Amino acid sequence: MSLFRAACAAFLLALGTGCASAGDDWVELAGKRYAVEIADDDAERARGLMFRDELADGHGMLFIHEREAPQAYWMKNTRIALDILYFDDALKLVSQQRDVPPCSAGDRCPPYPSKAPARYVLELNAGEAARLGLEDGMPLRLSPALQDAP
Length: 150
Prior knowledge:
single chain, alpha+beta, Jelly Rolls, two-stranded antiparallel sheet
């Protein structure tokens, strides 16, 4: 039985280490690198940054869609103001929604659509787009781990 417990402990340690390496995901925009959490399935995209009280400086969330299409995001149950940045298949900035306020109105929260089809959506703390002087057409660079993702 103690061998079983040791194996379980080793498995949990390895699992925890694997989760820690998820911190290797980053994007670079206008010369600034951001550590990102990845939302690449329907459940993760729906949850997004809901119920969080803060987003650490230098961090963001990257939403990856299966294909380029018109996108619209909302702030349902989101407690922090965000910049929502939309990028196409070529990783070019195609639309920006800056300083989007938190919303606690549930399903009555308004949508914030992209002005052009997008595949990648990056959420950063409100004010980052202005601080970086972002303009449509600017490129997003992905970490090697994200470049290899399907």
